[in-house]
Design goal:
alpha+beta; 4-stranded mixed β-sheet; 4-stranded antiparallel β-sheet; 4 helices; 15 strands; about 35% strand
Amino acid sequence: MKILDSLFIHDDDVGDRLETPLMAALREVYETGTAAFAGTSAGNTVMTSTVMVQTGHSYAGILNGAQPDVETPQEWELTYDPEGGLGFVPGILVDSHFRCSRSCFDDTNDTSSVPPVVFSERGREARIMRLLADTLDEPLGTTRAFGVDEDTALVVTSELDGSIPYGEVVGVSGVYFIDIGQADVSQVNGYVDFFPFCRASMYVLFPPASGQLKMLRLIT
């Protein structure tokens, strides 16, 4: 394990995170900063240190909310692991299969003056916003999420002093950034009522966008 220089996690059932000797060894390698960790689909989702999305469609999520630790969920049920992912992306929930093509904006690929109003390939914006809102008060809850498009990556590194994670979008498409930190989220009978949910921020970041993940100071 000490000679590991990269790790790629493929798509599969997200399942539960198990603390095993192998995981401890991987975490040790990660903390040394000597290896690259990457994943696709579910392998991308597990990178987060926050609550981790497992299954779900946006429509069912809006109606029924997010449920933790469902043993055998239906594909459409919005479920999550409250114990989080592997912890390789700090403080930001991660999701996959977002469609952020520049062609969604206009025929000239000029996005400088066009609002970021596009739809993901699997319509996952709403499910992530609902999950963020439902888990705000949990120990691993967060206000921010990234949705990564196919054939695209968000490369996360550290500043020179190792204190602030730094991200760069690379590939052929883009990455959604969703922040509900300033959103108006209403509580109804202990559940989040999605429909008056307003003032959430959503951006679409295209290559070569980059910046500090903590403050999202983008350089475009």
